[in-house]
Amino acid sequence: MSVTTVTKENFKAFTQSEKPVLLDFWASWCGPCRMVGPIVEEIARERTDVAVGKVNVDEEMELAMQFGVSSIPTLVVLKNGQTVARAVGYRPKAEIEKLL
């Protein structure tokens, strides 16, 4: 699967997936975000059991505020629309997969 760009317009439909949802809150100017991005994309390609989305905090401030994102990258895992895990800052692939 590929990574979906999540916006306030498609957020509700995307997060109502029956699969767990991994959201990566990021910005283009953020160094650690650029390190996490390829890992998130790799997980999206390898795992068909997870819906993976990226939220650009500069463009989607409402979503960032809704999730209380104050530092990036922030990874949030949703199951049945509820937050079940979150991590802030760079994480290696194994740690991100443990969140799922």
Tell me the layout of helices and strands.
Blueprint: E1 4-5, H1 11-15, E2 21-26, H2 31-46, E3 51-56, H3 61-66, E4 74-79, E5 82-88, H4 93-99
Parallel strand pairs: 1-3, 2-3
Antiparallel strand pairs: 2-4, 4-5
Description:
The chain has 100 residues and is of the alpha/beta class. It has one domain (4-99): Glutaredoxin, CATH 3.40.30.10. The protein is 34% helix and 27% strand. Strands 1-3-2-4-5 form a five-stranded mixed β-sheet. Strand 2 (21-26), helix 2 and strand 3 form a beta-alpha-beta unit. The longest helix is centred in the middle third of the chain and has 16 residues, at 31-46. The two termini are 16 Å apart. The model has no long low-confidence stretch (mean pLDDT 95).
Strand order of the largest sheet: 1-3-2-4-5
**What distance lies between the first and last C-alpha atoms, to the nearest angstrom?**
16 Å
Number of strands: 5
User: Could you name the CATH homologous superfamily?
Assistant: Glutaredoxin
Helix content: 25-40%
β-sheet strand percentage: 25-35%
Number of helices: 4
Order of helices and strands: EHEHEHEEH
The CATH architecture can be named as 3-Layer(aba) Sandwich
Net shape: globular
Class per helix and strand makeup: alpha/beta
Q: Low-confidence stretches at least 5 residues in length (pLDDT < 50)? A: none
Gyration radius over CA: 12 Å
